[in-house]
Amino acid sequence: MITRRTALLTGTAALLTPLAARATDPGYHLKPAEIADGVWLIEGAQDSFAPANGGAICNIVMLRTDQGAVVIDSGGTALHGAALRDFADQRLGGVAATLNTHHHPDHWFGNQAFADRPILALPATRGLQAQNAQALSEGLYRILGGWMRGTVPLPAATAVTGGNMVIGGRELRLLALSGHSQADLALLDPTTGTLIAGDLLFLDRAPSFPDADLDAWRGALDRLAAIPASGIVPGHGPFMRDSRAFAQTRAYLDAFQDRLGRAADLGLAPAETLAAGPMPEFAGLGANPEEYHRAVVQRWRDFEDMALPLIGGTA
Amino acid sequence: MMSAFLCDRLANGAAALAQYGGGIAPVTAPDSDPFDSGMWELHRLEYLGDPPDWRADPRMRVLTPRNAEDASHVPIMVDATGLTDPVTRIVITIDYSPLPLALIFHPGRALPLLGFGVKYEIAGPIRATALADGVPARMGGAFIDAMGGGCSAPAVAHTRPDWQQGFGEMRGRLFPDSGRLRVNIRHPMDTGLADGIPAHHLTDLQLLDAQGAPIARIELRHPVEENPTLTFALPPDLALGPVRIEARDSNGYRFSGEVRA
Ligand SMILES: [Zn+2]
Fold this sequence. Notes:
Chain A is of the alpha/beta class. Chain A has helices at residues 2-16, 78-91, 123-144, 214-225, 244-266, 270-275, 290-307; strands at residues 33-36, 39-42, 60-65, 68-72, 95-99, 119-121, 158-159, 163-167, 170-177, 184-189, 194-196, 231-233, 310-314.
């Protein structure tokens, strides 16, 4: 009984005391890599938010310009953002501007460290940042504890739309898409041909679906795939010079839709569908089975609505 | 362990379920609470009629997510088909909910299996206890952590839809091949705890056969999710349908629908 008692106490303690007391953060140790001329990638952990990674889970890209770095996504906490800012200041001559690809917190909770320079996002992203900042922040404080110290989410101040843009002499092509979330910004760096896809692409890490619209997502993949690129940075997962991230993300979306559609059509309940685990071919991806479990809860109603016809109403 | 769960209908689902678990671990002392929670004694008294004899029984299987990813919709499935003793009611209680009683299921002629969703704000155990005269109460459960962990952790705050739109709409389907019956009702299931919104929830739902005779019944309470979906399992004869579904709520509204094979 001692082990069970301990397990319960741990659970209760997690609930009652701020986690800040629990996590001792060893700091963020960035490993930036120059993947193309003037294109730096700081790769995120291929995992979910956890004390072990301090929320540094998404890929951050910095493009060198005459006026400093163009920073694409700002990290998951204020401290993470500050570490990224240090790198930009020391190695890239400061920051020219920051872009947030979408409103999920791992991509913009580091904005504070970049607030002295323009922070840009799609209009819908800005709205969702403002609307969800508090709920997202509360959740992350509970998960990350001390890593979140000083984090006050700061939505992007400036709206951008798709199209070409020049920052610090470097041309950028912005693509306004959606599907992973309500508004997803992808970027092409025409100088090197590097495509920075945000969370529209995942590689070796299970895609997340809290705001997914699978059909729109596939449409966005079609548009991105039509762009000739020399290398691809997914939102989560390694940089590649081939199109593996496209094939894998598309296959995952199809397989997920197929599995949940089948489950709803066989009369399974969501708890059973969750416990049945991810599609076998994707069971080994980073963040699975947890990401699949979450996705079932997040997306179940979409499939249930299709599987259950109208049979009655108020008598 | 045997179960009536249908996880095995999905590729690798049986193996994943075995790994996932579902319900409490076998206990050495059957009358000790595997969750060691002070609420259990109180809830036995208040909601289970203070049964003279009870045990923690791993054959009462309870499938839940480990984390309440979406605190307003936590999917639960209870399977008491592994019990050999009779089951006349299954009572669902949530240890640390301000309103601990979620529902009472009277399986009647249906199998003692039920899928449903609950609201979950505070980490702790959810329990399913099978009751019948002359046998001990048999309790199973699962611990649900209230922390989410997704890309948008926690689930993005929900904007309340106008409840009158589509209010009472009933969706459902009978799956004769598996005996499953699933039914969804559009209903706000308001707890009365939120400022300015009075309690308004479904109180009772019944399944009736072609002759109008009752099959199964559920007494529903506030912790059940908004727009609830319920999953039943029927024996082969009843799974041929038709089955009539009738429900009532706390404001006197009535709802009905019918599913055919
Ligand atoms: Zn995302």
